[in-house]
Specification:
alpha/beta; six-stranded mixed β-sheet
Length: 175
């Protein structure tokens, strides 16, 4: 009832000289993309999103600018949820006052022992992790990257229920 929003992943970001098929699909479905911006679907709630930080790191001098732009000007008294395909700059997001950061990208390692290599770049592959006062939730997702298979790491899409709590009471979180 509050709406549907999305962020792009590294494989559906537009590329120069190519049609933006993913963008056309989102637009046709009426799903706004949160690309370095935020919305407030309800009083006291901010939903922010970044462009894919993996691509930004490859093509931008400082991917932090995407994160800062996504969070700029939001009401400080609000709960902030950040959608970021890539679990990157998590400490920066926590420092900027994000309460919950939702990510994917790692596929939970997807194929054992490949997760060990992925964890060299992304220390958190999947699940719920406290980062200061922020909670980081990384989904394995339902899809795959590269080989169309998973080995000892089934796909998973988390279901998140947001509930109001009394001021000063941390929300109950479980993976």
């Amino acid at each position: 009832p509050l709406g549907v929003w999305a962020v792009r992943g590294n494989h559906d970001s537009p590329r120069p000289g190519r049609p933006d098929h993913a963008g056309q699909i989102y637009q046709a479905a009426g799903i706004p993309l949160l690309e370095d911006r935020w919305v407030s679907p309800a009083p006291g709630l901010v939903l922010a999103g970044t462009r894919d930080l993996t691509r930004a790191r490859r093509h931008s001098a400082d991917p932090r600018s995407h994160l800062e732009q996504a969070l700029s000007g939001r009401p400080q008294a609000s709960v902030t949820l950040l959608l970021s395909h890539t679990p990157d700059l998590v400490e920066t997001a926590a420092h900027l006052g994000v309460d919950l950061m939702l990510c994917g990208h790692t596929h939970g390692g997807q194929i054992w022992p490949f997760g060990h290599l992925v964890s060299l770049r992304y220390p958190h592959l999947e699940g719920l992790h406290p980062i200061g006062a922020m909670s980081l939730l990384i989904s394995r997702g339902a899809g795959t990257w590269g080989p169309r298979m998973r080995l000892w790491g089934r796909g998973r899409i988390p279901l998140i229920t947001l509930a109001r709590t009394r001021p000063g009471t941390p929300p109950p979180l479980s993976p």
